[in-house]
Amino acid sequence: MIPYFNTSGACIPGQHFMLPPERRLGRVMDLVEQARYFTLHAGRQTGKTTCARWLVDHYNDTGRFAVVWLDLETAQEQPDPGKAFQTIFEKLDLWVPLSIPELTPNPDRLDWLKNPATAILRYLGDLASRSTRPLVLLFDEADGLVGPAMVSFLTQLRDGYLGRDRAPFPHSVVLVGMRQVRDYVLASEDRKVVSWLGTTSPFNITAEAQTLAPFTQPEVEELLLQHTAVTGQRFEAEAVERIFYLSQGHPWLVNALADQVVRDVRDRTVPIARTHVESAKETLILERRTHLDSLLARLREPRIRRIMEPMLLGERLAVDGLDDDLQYVQGLGLIRLHQGRWEIANPIYREVIPRALTFVAQTSLYQETAWYLNPDGTLDLPKLMAAFQKFWRQDGHLAAEGFSYREAGPHLMLMAFLQRIVNGGGRVEREYGLGRGALDLIVEWKTDRQAIEVKLRRDTETEEEALEKILVYLDRLGLTEGWLVMFDLRKTVSWADKIYLRELVVSSKKIHIIGC
What's this model's pTM, rounded to 2 decimal places? Predict the structure, then answer.
């Protein structure tokens, strides 16, 4: 069988191109040796299950520990402890004998479910007492448990942990999921019950939460070279660099881009070039593969919207009450802290998020690319921006209020309008992050690049302040011409005063100022 780039489920040696999982585990094995209880958290499809299964095989093969991995997905969203624990018992009954053949289910285990408050404590204590080796348990998708079931599950693990010097209990427990354990319990009343989560073991979130680092660029190249070794088809250096840049080493995105590009370029004598990678990226975004779709579905969550909306606007976060939200969104893999500031985790997410938020608006716009082309095929951006002004006054400002990200409505509506026009012939690149106070756009059409800065004008925002930012932006891009779009949100200003087009030359740069 010829291996392939995996985009669904855990990687299997010999079946998939893959990097050594142990390389990504960091301190995980040290914590297991130290008999710690801790979380292994990372964003969706970053290799958590692959790494967890490697630990099972490694420890059971060496005989150092008796290790069991089980997926708690079928117990998710079940707040009733009795029903959730029955599912967990059934999973344990299945996976324990498969991993540790000498351990069979205790015939009394169903009686323990009569009192859910001690059921987990009894089952795991019984397993530990009958295991000839220190018992290690890895609970995958553990962060899907909710409400009283989650509280009871965590509390019983803690009780067993604290009493290990007097009664048998697992040597180490690892909760594997997308979130740190402090984010498992969201309801305020549940947080009070498990207030010990952030203070003492187990699950001391400050000292013991572990995560999986993304692939480095050399690791991306190492993975791609496995395809070359098997098929003879090579990836050009610029293609490798582009895959790393677009994915920022996210394992699923790396594999998805590689898988798509080798399916597109089936002639193995043809090397993979940067243009092939760009085409593969567009395919992933347009098709909204499962990973991207499930990620985007979370954009509706209030906790995520509180972080993402200011990021789209380029504004600062409110000072109070958002630290947990930041950590939560980071844990999901949507954002990262890079060079001291928060930003979208990678360029693909940076592009797909606003495109997903504006999809309905894009497909509802009756705008054709051909209307805005010059006779030589170049993009007539002045005509395009004038058309947007007209659209914004007539319908766009009202439609923008329908976005779930209402504060970012003007930005999203402009992006939807531009995306509708350039689809199939160009692209819109977006740069946004917290604290900039603006949204930066680059419209690329054939060999032409046009820079657009978007600002909201409420009360004190002045055109001069916005001009300073567009000049810095143009300097960075090496351009001598750019566009500044000012959305005037002041209720006291008439449309006649809001809608205007002016041109200025500042510091040898030509600036088109568009009022909306």
Answer: 0.84
